[in-house]
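We examine the record.
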Amino acid sequence: MEANKAKSKFVYPDRLYARCKDNKTLDISYAPQTLEAVEYVRTDAFIEKAAEWLNDTLMNTDFYENEIELMEKDFKKAMKL
């Protein structure tokens, strides 16, 4: 149980950058070090950002707020399949 509490305090970054160093070593960082760095985005962070965008976009339409919340939940479920 203590391990779960300690784990919840750590904030995972939304993005990581990886690059191959000397064709032997994989270098992973929180910021791109070179132009060759490959960007990796956490799936749940991507889904959250997409859901926020969807919510903001739908707020400017004729949908009711509860309909938008249901669409957002369905969207998140569909993205996790």
